[in-house]
Amino acid sequence: MPKKITKPGDRRTSIDRRVVRTRKSLQDALISLIHKREYDTISVDDICKAADVGRSTFYTHYAGKDELKRSGLEILHKELRERQHLAQKTETRGFNFTLALFEHAKERIDHFRALAGNRGGAIARSEIQNILTKLVRSELTRRPDETQTDAFQREATIQFTVGALQSLLRWWLENGAKQSPQEIDDAFQRLIGNGVAPK
Amino acid sequence: MPKKITKPGDRRTSIDRRVVRTRKSLQDALISLIHKREYDTISVDDICKAADVGRSTFYTHYAGKDELKRSGLEILHKELRERQHLAQKTETRGFNFTLALFEHAKERIDHFRALAGNRGGAIARSEIQNILTKLVRSELTRRPDETQTDAFQREATIQFTVGALQSLLRWWLENGAKQSPQEIDDAFQRLIGNGVAPK
DNA sequence: TTCATTTCTGGACACTATGTCTATTTTCAG
DNA sequence: CTGAAAATAGACATAGTGTCCAGAAATGAA
Question: Who contacts B113 (Cβ-Cβ below 8 Å, separation ≥6)?
Fold first, then answer.
């Protein structure tokens, strides 16, 4: 076989243990640092020191801090999709992926809080928002004879739902996820299904 | 990391024209820059050049970029509270501040989009979230005999509502606020009042 | 085991940004 | 007009970024 230029940052599934080990160290280091300080105040050098990895090595794997963080989210997303896939076999009514979401979030709460919490910042949130938007959109199917007003209503409904869900999720996690996934999901289903009656 | 607190116009609420002029220039410069690039990529120097203000002057007014941004939000908040105060005199059912919110946002759309949009980032959002949370909380009054479960339900409802509202607002603004404030508010009131029926 | 290949490494480099300080000039209010 | 306040350029120390290299170390395969 002729040579293959395999740069560390390549898409190719890494066989080399060193690569796996290095990346995992960096992932973990970032997570643990985010628990201690504001994301913006963490430097690449800090991460490398915490991970015990050379700074030049960092850059052969990730373009910067943000990419490292994104890669952490990809892992969560992948896990969630698998979970959702299982969940969809059972239920068919309403937003049936949300219970799986809350369960998943609770299991990986440290990971989630670090990446999606208040301190986590914008990158993670918009990424999570993308994920949730896809899921919600697939629940609200489009009528073939959709008018422009319908389109507006539908999109508004999607944005409304995603915002509500994400907000509830974040609040629950930030307060230590004291309630069970079932409880928080019940609350969500009730609110999204029946609406809110003020006063 | 700023350490020294220095506010030139502290003693009397800025009488000096120079102070007012400088601050306004910096505010405007930031807003216009945020429209062009990512917030993080904007340096204090960039802002100063755009505002035609010396960099050393900048630091006599603000501790850094973030504080400049926050001060911009304070202005919006103040205006919104005044508006809300007027709106509450003509009391209707439900969340009666939201129409005022949408109207206000549309009028100051450039300001809002820059500070609250996707590119705006985390500072603005959490600030706006605080504002909305206060408003929503005041709508959902607490029963005197509230149980622990009630408290959970109430807080969940608040977080749900704020998230939905903020998400809808952001989406509307980011897409150019094509619909009228009345339309978007109707959509919100309908969704929050009646819930969402998927499929 | 040996060995070619890949990865990791520290240190050097050029670069951009931050925040503070000072001496000087400009602008303001009274 | 005048003293006080504000704005300024430029210098400074510090810190972070991203790239590059040559050598050391680990790895998978033979």
Answer: B35, B120, B173, B174
B9 CA, D16 C1': Å apart: 33
Residue B21 approaches strand D within 7 Å at CB: yes
- Reported as a pLDDT band with limits 50, 70 and 90, residue A23 is very high
What is the predicted pLDDT for the residue at B117?
A: 57
Q: Which of A79-83, A144-148, A175-179, B100-104 has the lowest mean pLDDT?
A: A79-83
pTM: 0.80
- Chain C: nucleotides below 7 Å from protein CB are 5-12, 16-22, 27-30
pLDDT at B49: 97
Q: Where are the alpha helices (DSSP H) in B37-178?
A: 44-51, 55-61, 65-87, 98-107, 109-116, 122-139, 148-174
Least reliable range by pLDDT among A18-27, A138-147, B2-11, B179-188: B2-11
Q: Provide, as residue numbers in chain A, all residues whose Cβ is less than 8 Å from the Cβ of B197.
A: 193
For residues B163 and B170, give the distance between their C-alpha atoms in angstroms, rounded to a whole number.
Answer: 10
Number of residue pairs across A and B with CB atoms under 8 Å?
Answer: 116
Q: Dump the DSSP string for B90-118.
A: S--SS-TTHHHHHHHHHHTHHHHHHHHST
Task: Return the ∠ at Cα B199 (arms to A97 and A142), rounded to 5°.
Answer: 110
Angstrom distance (rounded) from CA B122 to CA B142: 30
Look at residue A198 and tell me whether its pLDDT is greater than 70.
no
What lies within 8 Å, CB to CB, of B101 at 6+ separation is B80, B84, B132, B165, B169
